[in-house]
Amino acid sequence: MIRAKKSLGQNFLIDDKVLNKIVNCVEINNKTILEIGPGTGNLTKYILNKKPKKFTVVEKDNNLANNLKEKFNKNLNIINDDVLNLNESLLFNERVIVFGNLPYNISTEILSKWIINLKDDFWFENLVLMFQKEVADRIIANYNDSNYGRLSILAHWKLIIKKICDIKPISFYPKPKIDSSLLLFSPKKNFYKIKNPKNLEKITRIFFNNRRKKIKKPFNQIFNGDFKILNKLKIDLDLRPQNLNFETYYKLTEEYENLRS
After folding, report:
1. HEC profile for the chain?
2. What is the dihedral of CA 14, 162, 28, 92, to 10 degrees?
3. Can you tell me the distance from the alpha carbon of 139 to that of 184, in angstroms, rounded to the nearest whole number?
4. In what order do the strands lie in the sheet with 96-101?
5. CATH architecture for the domain at 197-260
6. Tens digit of each residue's pLDDT (9 = 90 or more) over 69-96
7. What is the fold, at CATH topology level, of the domain defined by 6-187?
8. How far is CA 142 from the centre of its chain?
9. Which segments in the chain show pLDDT lower than 70?
């Protein structure tokens, strides 16, 4: 019997209704598929039934990777490695659809890595990813929402995000103590041009360092009280970080890059 490893954040999805909903989020037939953390292969089986053109899975756990080899024989390309070590854009010569019941302990790290490393030509067609519900709420949050923050701003920069459903602990083994959410990500055709995504990370980190305080201090810290930028972007320094919309943070990053160039 395969036992879930708490150290790897493993919770295996066992609910057939949910598994069926996941594979029907997007068209799989004759597509190139990447699954992150397939575990015992429950979702893997559903994906194979949809007849993808090519199918690669990434599984860090050695025992699970060997189990997948035995279970699915030559129907899969199995990469036994940590997804954080991979450069996905080099693995494929066409856009892929990514499925992932992401380990809760590194889910934001995986998503952030993918977004930060994105070039103008996306390596994926869609991402169908499961997160801890409170993390998903932060990802999809809009400005003036208490969940709005750095992750929301980064995620919405290049991606269109749609919440598919919430999933109860009973759908997993072992049962987690929290609810999960399934999100669908699609590339934006038009997005704000930023030279270095790490500058967006820096701007949002400084602004949200004290999210309950007014933005006057972080603005002055970055721009030394430059009223030209203030007037250009029509920013009210009495606002708090969560009151500035996505585009304002992208424009602030652009202004920051202009000052440094």
Report:
1. CCCCCHHHCCCEECCHHHHHHHHCCCCCCCCEEEEECCCCCHHHHHHHHCCCCEEEEECCCHHHHHHHHHHHCCCCEEECCCHHHCCHHHCCCCCEEEEEECCCCCHHHHHHHHHHCCCCCCCEEEEEEEEEHHHHHHHHCCCCCCCCCHHHHHHHHHEEEEEEEEECHHHEECCCCCCEEEEEEEECCCCCCCCCHHHHHHHHHHHHCCCCCCCHHHHHHHHCCCHHHHHHHCCCCCCCHHHCCHHHHHHHHHHHHHHHC
2. -110
3. 11
4. 77-79, 54-58, 32-36, 96-101, 124-132, 180-187, 159-167
5. Orthogonal Bundle (1.10)
6. 999 988 899 999 999 999 998 899 999 9
7. Rossmann fold (3.40.50)
8. 16
9. 1-10
Closest CA to 86 of 159, 36, 11: 36
Could you identify the residue written with the tokens 């010569």? 93
Cα separations in angstroms, 96 against 33, 105, 166, 172, 248: 5, 24, 24, 26, 31
User: How high is the pLDDT of residue 10?
Assistant: 58
Tell me the pTM. 0.93
CA atoms of 215 and 225, how far apart (whole Å): 11
Same fold, 6-187 and 197-260: no
Cα–Cα distance for residue pair 159/190, rounded to 1 Å: 10
Domain ranges of the chain: 6-187, 197-260
**Which residues, 6+ apart, have CB-to-CB distance to 61 below 8 Å?**
5, 8, 10, 39
Q: What is the rounded CA–CA span in Å between residue 166 and residue 186?
A: 19
